[in-house]
Amino acid sequence: MPSRASVFLSVRLLRRCCVIAALLPACWLAPAAAQDPVTLQLKHSHQFQFAGYYAAVEQGYYREAGLDVTILEGSDGNEPERDVVSGKAEYGVGASSLMLARLAGKPVVVLGVVFQHSPYALAMRQTSAEPDIRRIIGKRAMIGSLTDELGSADELLAYLIKEGIPASSFERVEPTYNTADLISGKVDAIAVYTTNEPDTFDRLGFPYDIYSPRAVGIDFYGDNLFTSEREIANHPARVQAFRAASMRGWQWAMSHQEEMADIILNKYSRRSDRAHLLYEARQMVPLVQPVLVEIGYQNPERWRHIADVYAGLGMVPKHANFDGFMYRVESSGTSLLWLYRVLGGAALALVLGAAIHFSLLARVRRRASAAIRTGEQRFRTMFEASPLGIALVDSITYEYRDINPRYQEIVGRSQVELNAMRWLEAGHPEDVAQVKLQMGRLTAHEIGSFKVTNRLFRPDGELVWIEVSVTAIETEAGSHPHHLCMIEDVTDKKQSEALIWQQANFDPLTQLPNRRMFHDRLAHDMLKSQRDRSCIAILFIDLDHFKEVNDTLGHHQGDILLVDAARRISACVRKSDTVARLGGDEFTVILSELEGTERVEHIAQHIIDSLRLPFPLGQEQAFVSASIGITLYPDDALDIDDLLKHADQAMYAAKGAGRNRYSYFTPTLQVAALNRMRLTNDLRGALKAEQFELYFQPIVHLKSGRIHKAEALIRWNHPQRGVVSPLEFIPLAEASGLIVDIGEWVFRESARCVQRWRQQHHPEFQVSVNQSPLEFQREDGAYDAWLRYLQSLNLPGQSVVVEITEGLLLDANATVSNKLLQLRDAGIQVALDDFGTGYSSLSYLKKFDIDYLKIDRSFTRNLAPDSSDMALSDAIIVMAHKLGLRVIAEGVETPEQRDLLAAAGCDYGQGYLFARPMPAEQFDELLRQQAV
C-alpha cells in the first residue's frame, strides 16, 4: 500500500498538472512579459567578492529569469540590511550579523550562503617567528565601527574573548580601512579580509601575522544573499528566480576567474588591478568551496553555532529562535486537511492517484539519478580543472584517496608515485612538524581547518614553496577521518619577496648590510646588551683619499676597491659582529658582547693595517688609508642616532689628527661639534647682516720697495665672538656651500677697491683673491659674471689675480683646465699659493697657465745663508724664472729674510715686515704715505 505521504504527493502532482494544463493556452497567446526591475545592494565597493552577481548580469542569467537587476555599491557593511528592510532595495549581501537583525525583529531572510567560511581576520605586524595574538593587549586596534551595533567585528571580538583577551584589555579606535595605519604604526592591529589586504602587505614587503577566528572553532558564514519577508510574500516566483540566477552566476564566476577579472575591470571598477582581482579569486576558493559544497547551501546547525557564539557575547539570549530566517527553496505544499477531505470524498481518486504516483515516482527517481550523475560530473570537472592542487587524504594513515592533475604538477610526481607515498613525505623536514601539530588539533576537533606556507622537494631536488589549506571532511561513522588538502605554488612570489628583502636590507655592491639593516641589528644588540649588561662598540670607518682613486682611475675601479675593502674589514671581526656599508666610502662595524676596550683597539688597528696595504686594480695599484671613529654603548649615548653622531665626530677627529688612525669619542668632541654647528648657523646670516670685512696685506716689489699689489683677506666680525679667524670659518663655509656666496662678495669688494687704487695710486695695481677648490670647480659660468662686473667698473682682467692651491691641480680634469684657460683669455692672472708644501709636480707648472709662485712661509721662516731652506728657495726662484713665472715670498718678517730673498732674485715679498693685514681705509693711508 502506498503511504499517506506518497498518496499526498500524487494528488499534489496531479493538481499541479491540471493547473499547468489550464494555463498553457494562455501562455501561448500572451505576449512576452516585461522584465521585473529589482535592486541588489552590495555591502562594499565593486570587487571579486561579488563576482557571481556580475556574472549573472553579463551571462544573461538574470535576463533569462525575467529580471532587470541593478547592482549598487555599498559604503558600509550595514547598508544592505537598512535598504532591504526599508524597501529601497529588494535584495542585499550581508554578513552573519544578519542573524542579529532577525532576532532584533527585522524581517530579513537569508536566501543562500556564498562564503561557507568568513574571510574576516585580524592582522598585526610580524615581530617574531612565533605569532602571538596576546601582543594586542594594551595596544590600539581597528576592529569594527565603534558606532555600529552590528557587524563582522563580532566574530573577531568573540575570537579574542575565547583567547582570553576581553575588549577592555586593548584600545579600539574608529576604523579608516587604510592598511597604511598598520604599516606606519599608527595602530597595532586591524581587521582585514583574507581575500584582500594581505595582497597589499605582500606587495609592500610588510611583514605581518594573520589571526583567524577559525583557529579557535569560531566559524561564521561570510557573504550571504538575503531579502525581506515582504519580497517573499509579494513576489515568491521572483525570489526563487533571482536566487537561482545568482547561484548560477556564482558557479560561472568561480570556474572562469580570469574572464571574470577582465569583466570587472572593463565594466565595474578599476580600483584594483588584475593581479589583485585574481588574488581575491584564489583566496575565495577555500572560503566559497565551490567544488565541495553547492553554492547557496546553508546548514541550520552552522547558524545555530553562530547564534551560540553571539549568545556567548551576551548579544542574544541562549537558544534563541530564528525560525523563518532561512529561505526554503521549495514550499511545503497543501495542508493535510485538504488531503483528508479528498481521501474521504473520492476512493476512485486514491486508486488513480496511486497509479499516477508510481509513474511519477519512477520519473522522479530517474531525474534524481540524472541530477546526481550531473552533479558528480560537474564536481569531477571542477576538481580536475581546478587551478589549485587538490588531494583527498586519510587523516590517520596519510594515504592519498584522490588527487587532481594540478596537485601532481605542483609536487612533480605522477598519481602512481603519489599513491605509493604518504602525505608530507616530500615536505621539508623543518616544516613537517608544524603541519603535524596542526593536524593533531584538526583530528581532535579543536579546529576545522588551517592554513600554512611551507616547502616541499620535487624528485629533481628543486625546492618549491606552497600555500597549503587543509579542511576536515565529514565521513561515515566508524571510518577514518579525511581531510581535503589544497595547495598553490607560490615559489615565484617567495623568490620575489626574498629579492625585495635583499634589496631593501643589503648593499648591492658589497653585499654588506645597508643602513636599514645596520639600524635593525644595532637596535637588537642594544636590547641584548641591556639584558647581559655588556658593552657595544661602534666603529665608523671612512676611507682616506678614496675620491682621488675615483677621479683618476674611474668609478668602476673605485667600486672594485670598495668590494675589496669590505672583504678586508669583514676579515678583521668575528662572524657574530656586523659590518655594514652606509654609503659611498663609509663603513660601520658593530662589536657586541664586549667586556673591555682592549679588543676594540686591537680590531681598529687591525682594520687600519689591512686597509693600508695596496689595492690591486688591474694594471694599477691604489693606496688608501682609514680614519676610524669609535663610540661605546651605553657609556657615550643611549640611542642609535646619538651613537652614530658621536662615532662620526670621532672619525673626523681622527682625520683632523692626520688620518690613518682611530679616535675615541669624547665630550670635548661633542662640544666642538656643537660649536661648529652653531657657528655654521651664525655664518648663514653673516653676509646679509654685513658682518664680513675685507683686510688687505701689501705685496712689496723687493727691488724698489714699492707696493703694487695686495692680497684680499676676509675677516668675520661676529656680534658675540668678536673677530673669527678664517681658519675657523672658511672650512665651515666650504662644508655648508656658503663659500660660493662669500667668494662672490670678496671679489666684488676687491674689484671696487682696486678700481680706486688704480685711479689714485698706480694704473697697474693688482689685488689677489683666494679661491676655494669648491668655487674653482663650479660649472655655472661664475667667471663670466666676474668679467661682466669688471667691465662695468672699466677694469681690465689684469687688475685681479686668482690664488689657488697646489691640491687643486691634482684634480686635473677638464673643468680645471677650462677654468684656467678662461682666466688666461680674460687677462686674469693666476698665483699658485703655498708652493712647495703640496703634491704638485713640475709638470703642472708647464701644463697650466700659472703667473706667480708664492713660496710658503715655512721656507721663509728659517732662511739663513747656506741653509737648506735657502737652497730650496734659490731653486724655486731660478726654476720659476726659467719658466717665465714671477715669485712672491710669504711670511717675510725680518730685514735679513728680505735681503736674502732679494739677493736670490725673488720678485715680491709679503709679510709682517712690511705690514699686517689692515682694513681698506688704513690701506689707503699706507698708499698715500708711500706716495709722499
TrEMBL record:
Residues 375-446 form the PAS domain. Coiled coil: none annotated. InterPro entries: Biofilm_reg_signaling, EAL_dom, EAL_sf, GGDEF_dom, Nucleotide_cyclase, PAC, PAS, PAS-assoc_C. Residues 1-34 form the signal peptide. Residues 676-931 form the EAL domain. The keyword Plastid does not apply. SUPFAM superfamilies: EAL domain-like, Nucleotide cyclase, Periplasmic binding protein-like II, PYP-like sensor domain (PAS domain). Residues 450-502 form the PAC domain. The keyword Acetylation does not apply. Residues 534-667 form the GGDEF domain. PROSITE patterns: EAL (PS50883), GGDEF (PS50887), PAC (PS50113), PAS (PS50112). GO terms for biological process: cellular response to nitric oxide. It holds the Pfam family PAS_3. One of its GO terms (molecular function) is cyclic-guanylate-specific phosphodiesterase activity. It catalyses: 3',3'-c-di-GMP + H2O = 5'-phosphoguanylyl(3'->5')guanosine + H(+). Keywords: Signal. PANTHER family: BIOFILM ARCHITECTURE MAINTENANCE PROTEIN MBAA, DIGUANYLATE CYCLASE DGCP. This is EAL domain-containing protein. It comes from Rugamonas rivuli.
